Predict the structure.
Amino acid sequence: MTMAPEEPKVEVPEGYVKLTIDGEEVIAPKGELLIRTAERLGTVIPRFCDHPLLDPAGACRQCLVEVEMNGRPMPKPQASCTMTVADGMVVKTQRTSPVADKAQQGVMELLLINHPLDCPICDKGGECPLQNQAMAHGRADSRFRDTKRTFPKPLPISTQVLLDRERCVLCQRCTRFSDQIAGDPFIDLLERGAHQQIGTAETAEIYDAASHTASGKPFQSYFSGNTIQICPVGALTSAQYRFRSRPFDLVSSPSVCEHCSSGCAERTDFRRGKVMRKLAGEDPEVNEEWICDKGRFAFRYATAAQRLRTPLVRNAETGELEEASWTQALAAAADGLAKARDGKGVGVLPGGRLTLEDAYAYSKFARLALRTNDIDYRARAHSAEELDFLASRVVGTTPETGVTFTALEHAPLVLCVAFEPEEEAPAVFLRLRKGARKRRTKVVHIGQWTTPAVSKTFGELLACVPGGEASAVEGIAQHAPDLDEALRAEGAVVLVGERAAEVPGLFSALHRLSERTGARLAWIPRRAGERGAIEVGALPTLLPGGRSVEDAAARSEVEQVWGLEAGALPGTPGRDVTGMLNALVTRDLDGLLVGGVDPADLPDPALARKALAAASFVVSLEMLPSEVTEHADVVLPIAPVDEKAGSFLNWEGRRREFSITLEGTGALPDCRVLDTLGVEMDADLFTQTPAAAAGDLARLAPKPTGSAAAPDVPNGHVPKAGDGQAVLATWRQLIDEGTLQIDEPHLAGTARPVVARMSKASAAGLGRRVTVSTERGSVTLPLEVADLPDGVVWLPANSPGSKVRATLGAGHGAVVTIAAGGDQ
Amino acid sequence: MSADPITPVLTKRWLSPQSWRLSTYEKLEGYTAIRKALAGTPEQLVQLVKDAGLRGRGGAGFPAGVKWSFMPPNEDKPHYLVINADEGEPGTCKDIPLMMADPHSLIEGCVIAAYAMRSHHCFIYVRGEALHCIRRLNAAVREAYEAGYLGKNILGSGFDLDITVHAGAGAYICGEETALLDSLEGRRGQPRLKPPFPAAAGLYAAPTTVNNVETIASVPFIVNGGADWFRQMGSEKSPGPKIFSISGHVERPGQYEAPLGTTLRELLELCGGMKDGIPLKFWTPGGSSTPLFTAEHLDVPLDFEGAAEAGSMLGTTAVQVFNETVSVPWAVMKWTQFYEHESCGKCTPCREGTYWLAQILERMVAGRGTEEDIDTLLDVCDNILGRSFCALGDGAVSPITSGIKYFRDEFLALCEDNRAKQELVGAQA
């Protein structure tokens, strides 16, 4: 006799409900939207306005389903993107309900009556949710016999983003993204009914001068590209990609952004050996589904006409760089480096944009082939205090032990010091805004003025004079007791940026603050390679894994792994960047091996130029001609990220691995070039490939964080400006004159206006433009009034017409001369 | 007070000289209810309005007392009372005349309702086109402040109330309560997602009740007359007096007050019958968003239940009367053009659907329609009804579906020419 199998009783856990979807019982967390529950069951309900990271809108009505509550059917079909699950609910989707199916088909037909039939020339064709869902849930033909609504098209709403209002289905994903996620509500709905359209204050004039967006400003956002990606039709397209290719011709490769230290997941689409576009990848722990416009659009540098593709060797007779074979060039480089090494030595400047594997090759090459600790990746303002800070508080931190994106979102308080999140790490900014918006994270900024990031994180500004940040941090206990209290709360975080290296005593003050309050401290550098370079020991005081060069036991560990004789590694700390440059000028150093370093980024570009000229032998590993290649004796071309594999370590210490996107281009990663160069110099690096380099590095397990001594430097005096002077505040804008942004004019057009900023009192009498000068040179910019402290002037650090380092030879906290700049 | 069905209540002061003045109002029992109300507790007032069975006069007929009781009993956040005076439903002309003729009855009602809901700020959102009305309301509010009926410590009761008169900007959608709140906040007027409902998070995300002008103006009479008196008028489920706005082909169009449940036949008597004696063809019981009625429905009791049973809705009791000279497809086209023009654009069915329906109807009226178009009209209506974000989409299809239901022949007649032509073409082939 067979027994009927007993129905397994399903326990509904606390915080969950049980409902039925299409006859299937399902347990769902309270608050979950029906559309997601159905999706977990494998039933995709068509939708346009719904997006998991945006607040529900219920506008498109495409996701209608039938719902029964407490045994009573609701009279109307319900939007499954706005209705949350409830216990005992019975839901019928298009799979089981003719009513829901007809409702969906009806809405689809309505969406299509005014949609142009330009799929064959539309960028979205082939990956279009409207196209796909119309095929799956729409009628085969339209009953619409009348006149479609037309608009002139396309309409540029920024230099990068183009709007096609005919294709728009008015789902409002773009406006909701800009308003909710980015905080840049510069696009909005205009007009009403069938005339309703997306627009900006500027486009509004075209239809009706009475319409304006709430802000009255053009679509200016560092995140505008996301609106293109989430647009469910081809209404938003980029000037960069428009009409370039069809989705089904593209090959997609997961990748990692090479720009800032966030390490955003990306998808790189290429065709016939050429990258056509980059899209945001999904990583809920890091960038969720968003990337900034720099990460999305700034990749054309790799296809620039001037890209270096063959090695160059300087002809001793003519003094010109000439193309050479790899064999010749490597031999020349090895020869020159060996001579210089055996003379006064060779310094290594790897730069801050390397992958972990490439940086490791530099670190190992310096120690093995050049037998020196003269290596410093920091192609920016730096200090010995910073070095101590990196060695004691940063190296070795991981997402398990340190601060993470998620921790930022959940923190009760985040204090940003000398860090401009939107400009320096946009994904961090988005997370801070999300925390502030959704979880009431309080964000406090110690800076100079209420920047867009301060307002968009609903933040509070503690304004101080540039260079006075350390005193401001020290003064928290006395002057801001509520902040001091908040820092003691569980989960409170302090973020510090690269600018801190320019403020003596700031790292020490932050360390003390963190020790005193228990707030967790995270350092967020600006460049993608910085965090990895620390880990692999591309610093004068550190060996791989946070081992101190002065620690004999640590050295011998490394010697063992590297197969060196005991005592082979030098035990004295090397010179930092400035030290090396000075030594070159004074002829205490002969040679230089340089990675991707722009002398204009260094604290004193003039000194860098002098040093490059003075060096007896310079090898440059570069992708593009630069001031370094101008002085180099041998130039070895290396591969951009798309043409190599590797990994970045993001600011969290999270390994962001990526594989090669474009294979077979012949371009070599730095680690391979250095490996071969090492062989020429009788040093085996075992870094032939990024994988080999990673394997070699893995044998050097990182030391626990915190074994080194924390910095303890007294606060520098707060700079004071005399008559006709001001203290300079300066940092970089996300979109500026950075080398990796070349050849992308549409992106450059979305940069923020280049202006100087001063307080109302300080700006009085200066007119509409201000000239900021030092004995080196001057910068003249339009002057805007902002809430800076008196006697302070802010300049963008590397924007068109405002190259602060290169022109003024000064940085954050310097005292500069101020004069009226004329009205031009 | 007697409860003779013909004795006016809401409109009783309208014909007095300078009826809008505070002095006139005070002479005619004005501001007597407020004293009684402020002497009681908010809970008593809510109960009184519940007992009276007062139902919202803005169209939906939701019980006012129940709506008031949704307001939280605490005052953790400010409470707001918002008066929907954005009278925009085609055919409706009761709130603006009421505010013109007797603004103080609304103000007194506001004080009582605000007190019942623990609100200290009331906004009256007046349709922007009604400039004359906004001026009169502002003058009345000023008078009330000066007399101590508004402001701090009203009549020594300790209760404070401010009233702000706000002008709308001319959008039909802003009569929808959540779109009205967005508009009041200075945003684009489009309906909000519910929940949260206004009583939980309305104006400025604070507890809010939105009531129609006529609803609130009824409150002082209930306070003075009591629930039982109020219930003597109208029907069991739809008690009280109501202002019917009668327009179209009648001898004396205008506002007629009568108890709920009065029939069109009775109303026609009040307004002198059909104009020039031309027979009635069709009419709306409560504005263009309520399905049409015909001469068959002359004896339908015009209360919430009666209208619904007969296949329509009471709506705003805007009775638009059309005689036999009017083409139904033409009238339906004009209404549909109105909905197309006023669709806010937020949701697909209403935005795209009204755009399509208007074009089909325009084509039909121009003699270029086909029988197939009638089916398309009905199916598109079916795809809008109950699928749109707010109730305005439902309202937009009412004239079409009811027009075709009762007068399909007229729509078919418009297609005759086309059919003849097509047959001729077939014959040639």
Notes: Residues 145 and 151 of chain B are 6 Å apart (CA to CA). Chain B has a mean pLDDT of 95. Residues 22-232 of chain B form a domain with the Rossmann fold fold (CATH 3.40.50.11540).
